C-alpha cells in the first residue's frame, strides 16, 4: 500500500508540474465556463431598476424606481444599480455597458445560446442611457439617487423611500468624463446591434456622436461639477482626457468616420497615449484605449497607431513574471492584486484585455514585445486563464468568488436586495432603518444573487465572507461585465483535461 501511495503522489506531482507549464490541464471544463457565462449575465437581472419584464428570471426582484426623474419632468426609469446599493451612477453604468458590448464584439461568436441574453443585458442599459442623453438638449443625466442618503438606509429597491434626486452635467457644469464614457458605451453597443436591429444601432451611434461632441466642446470633470454627490463614490481620479480618447476610439470603430481618426491622431499625445498606465477600470481608460487602437495598427498598418501597440505591449509585459518590465503584484495563490477594495474588478478587466489582445495578435501572427523577449498570444491566454480559474474556485480557499457557481461561494453578500427578505416572502414594507438587522445578521442571504462576482480576497488570499466587509463582499456590474467576455472565450477555447 505504501509504495502505491508513493507512486500516486509522484504521479500527482508530475501531472501538476506538466499542468503548470502548459494549457493541457484545466480545473474546469468547457461546460463549466458556459455555466459561468450564463450566470455572469444572469447577475445583471438582479441589478435591474425599473419595470421588470415578464421573462425576468431572478424573480425575487420586483419593480423599483418607477418614478425616477418624474419630479424633474424627465423619464429616467430603468438602467442598473451599480453594486449593493440603490443608486444609479452614470459613470460606472456606462463603463459596464461598454465592456458588455466589447465582450459581445470580440467573443459573441463563442456565446452560443447566451448571446441573446448578453444583448438583452446591454439593451437594458442603453435604453436608459439614450433617455439620459436625449431628454434635454445640452445636458446629460448622470445619476439618480442621493448616495449619502441612500447609504443611511438598508432597504430593498422595491421599498425605496430615500430621495431620488436627479443629477446632470450641462454646458455650464460640464462632465467630459461621464459624457465621453456614455458616448463610448452607445458607440460600442451600436456595433452589437448593427445586424440584428439596424435602426436601433443607428440611433445609438448618432446619439454617441452628439454626446461626444458635448463632452469635447464643454470640457471639465464631473467630479468638479457634482462634488459630494459623486465623490468619494465614483470620483473621476484620472481626469477626463482618457475618456475623450476612449470615446473617440469607439465612435471611430463603429462609424469608420475619418474625422474621429483625425481627432485621435491630433489629440492622442495630450490625452494619455504616451503614458504607460498599469490598470484599466471604470475610472481609467488609457490601457483599454491602447489595446483597442493597437488593432488599427495590426489590421491596417496605420503607422500613427504604432505607438498604441508599443504601449499595449508595455502593459501586457508588466503583467507577466520574467519579462524585463514585469511589475504586477500577485497573491501567493496567483491572483493579480491591485487594491484592497473590490480588487476583482481589476482582475476581470485584465483577463479580458489579455484575451482581446491575444486575439488581435494571433490574427496577424504577431507577438507582444518585452524588451529583448516576446510574449505569444498563447502565453497571454494562459495568464488570463489563471485569473479566471482563480475566481471560479481554483485557489487556495477552493472557493468560487462567483455567487451560485460551484459548491462553495460567498453567502453573506453586501447587497440590499439579496440580503433582505424578498417582497414575495415578506410583502410588507421594511423601512429604512429596520433593514439594518439583516445587514448585521449572521444568516446567509435569503436571495441568491446568481452570477455576482464579489470584491474578492486580500493580498494573502484571505476572504472574509462578511456582509459588513463591503471591500471584499460587495458585487458590482463593472466586475462582471468584462468577465462575460472572458468566460465566453474559454467556453469554446478550453483545452481538455
From TrEMBL:
InterPro entries, per database record: 6-hairpin_glycosidase_sf, 6hp_glycosidase-like_sf, Glyco_hydro_9, Glyco_hydro_9_Asp/Glu_AS, Glyco_hydro_9_His_AS
Secretion signal, residue range per the UniProt entry: 1-27
Superkingdom per UniProt: Eukaryota
Gene Ontology BP terms: cellulose catabolic process
Catalytic activity, reaction form: Endohydrolysis of (1->4)-beta-D-glucosidic linkages in cellulose, lichenin and cereal beta-D-glucans
Active site: 414, 465, 474
Keywords: Carbohydrate metabolism, Cellulose degradation, Glycosidase, Hydrolase, Polysaccharide degradation, Signal
Protein name from the UniProt record: Endoglucanase
Organism expressing this protein natively: Cephalotus follicularis
Species classification: Eukaryota, Viridiplantae, Streptophyta, Embryophyta, Tracheophyta
